[in-house]
Predict the structure.
Amino acid sequence: MAKIKIFISSVQKEFVSEREALNEYILSDSLLGRFFEPFLFELLPATNEQPKAVYLKEVEQSAIYLGLLGTEYGFEDKGVSVTEREFDHATLHHKTRLVFLSSHSSAERESKQNAFTSKAQADLVRRRFSNVEELKTNIYSALVNYLIEKNKIQTGPFDAAINPTASLEDLDSNKIVEFVRTARAKRGFPLQESAPIKDVLTHLNLVNNGKVSNSAILLFGKSPQRFFINSEVRCTYFYGTEVVKPIPSYKVFKGDVFELVDQTVDFVLSKLDFSIGTRSEEISIPSKYELPKEIVTEAVVNAIAHRDYTSNGSVQVMLFKDRLVVFNPGSLPMGWTTEKLKKIHTSVPANPLLAEPMYLKGYIERLGTGTADIVRIAKKEGLKEPEFIQDDSFKTILYRPSTDQAPTKYRPSTDQVPQEFRGTSVEVESLIKVLNGELSRQEIQQVLGLKHKGNFRENYLEPALELELIRMKHPDSPNHPKQRYVLTEKGVVLKRTLE
């Protein structure tokens, strides 16, 4: 099957790195790489032909013209920029034109570029972008729609496909408003909290003709598992190094992708040793989990964001005595190896329309640093190098420190805990370690790095209250707005022992 040629315009200096990133992204994506062949003028071999003749001929031979418009008008040939001449040639030859406009104001653009932009907008729907990852997402959505319109594919990839049974009523408007609030604070999201829900979804490429995509349901659905039963995370904790019964703890988490991440990360952290240092060594009291929260979160987010949602499998997380293993039904981009993941690489998400909102809300970082950061942070902490394995599923393995590896000041001392406290859970002991003076539920969660309120109440707060290790400041009013928790005499004894 002959590939569809895309002429990537704009040879001016303004978009050199963006054009190179788009070229690699289209070739690496599992869907786009099958159908499209991008063209970059600077990758052509040397030729005797005039540059103008070459690029105009390439426009004629391409099915799609992809234009990037920024602040600069660029090099002019007889008063007309190369980019505008390409655009005019694509228009003359009735090519599909996709124009993407940088998010600069008209005041920041050169006067001729403003005139060119107005001309391009007169008969085209153009999308704005503020960075290369947002540009990739917009182009992904546009090219998928092109394939559907040209009957090259019957339905789009999972994240972009419109769900035939869902409607806007199946989305939680409160989740969308909260998303906008967080995305504005963390990433400068351009829309206001008061923006119509449909406008927010349109900006994120999550609706088409009033119908919602699969990604919209996973991100903001009232009950995502009603549509995708396997969009859940199964978490298991084992005492030893093998999968054997009895299983001390097994949880199946449901909800939107943000809730899945929060619940899963909290589950793993709740089973890890949490240690407190002393002020004699540092001004603030140092505290840490035996596995850094950053790499646990990155492994979980990668599994949820990049999994194959058409698979019947679910994301699985298994915590053993010596390691954490995160499985997801997915695969690497075409031509990639697991070794590439250990270095900084371009970002080629399996589900771009799912990954973009997760980035905007602060759950994902950009530039392909995630897996490289896992390796870097593990090395910094003196842990065994993590492994990435691709077989029938994708697997990330994080190795827990052995007792010999753990720094002395953080080494747990549970062997010295009095017999009366030996049955206390890891979660309760972590709470006791961080409870100084009077703290609210939110403050304790923040110190422990936990996000999910339900998990914290069930596994930390309520057991500690039942064991009479802590007490409420306002016991007659459990939901008091200024409710605080303090250690009991029994809790003080346990805290001193743990320290």
The chain is about 40% helix and 15% strand.
